[in-house]
Amino acid sequence: MKTAVYPGSFDPVTNGHLDIISRASRIIDKLYVAVLDNPSKTPLFTAEERVQQLKQILKDYDNVEVMSFSGLLVDFARSVNSNIIVRGLRGVTDFSYEFQMALSNRSLDSDIETLFISADTQYLFFSSSQVKEIAYFNGNIDNMVPDLIKEQLQKKMKKY
User: Fold this and answer.
1) Catalytic residue positions?
2) Which residue stretches of the chain have pLDDT < 70?
3) CB-neighbour burial class of residue 96 (10 A; exposed 0-12, middle 13-18, buried 19+)
């Protein structure tokens, strides 16, 4: 059975993330969506909120499980008996960063392989950070995030 981990902050989860999850879940037997809980960062949504959002959005995916983690990704991958890390690529700058991360992870655990999935062209132009900024200024994010995330972003932005 092929098990993989798709890690990220998912703050917020975008349609681009969901596209990668959907496509990876078709080629992997078990996919863990791993929400990074990094105590040195201040995300808009807590790790618990992000996990709950993803669980709700991905409830119809039988082979996808959502969990949070902190620490080294290779340690999390080992804990779920996976040696495959899935990463999405939007362009050359993503590749440079992701390639460096793949080499770092492999240096920590030589059994780790990174599977790169190129983003669908409709998702090449935005990131979670851009989505938050657009939402902050009441811009249209309909094609960038699921309705659930749009609603929760709007509620969060009213507080700022």
Assistant:
1) 17, 41, 90, 128
2) 159-160
3) exposed
Place of tokens 């959907």: 22
Answer for the pair 5, 85: CB distance below 8 angstroms, yes or no: yes
Which has the closest alpha carbon to 123: 8, 6, 16, 12?
Answer: 16
Q: What is the largest CA-CA distance in the chain?
A: 46
d(CA 123, CA 19): 9
Please give the Cα distance from 13 to 86 (Å, whole number): 16
* CATH T-level assignment (fold) for domain 3-122: Rossmann fold (3.40.50)
Predicted local confidence at residue 160, as pLDDT? 61
Q: What does the domain layout of the chain look like in residue ranges? A: 3-122
Task: Copy the structure tokens of residue 65.
Answer: 């499980």
Closest CA to 68 of 53, 83, 48: 48
Considering the entire predicted model, what is its pTM?
A: 0.95
| Tokens 């995330």 belong to residue | 149
In the chain, what is the straight-line distance between the N-terminal and C-terminal CA atoms, in Å? 46
The tokens describing 2, both together, are 């092929």
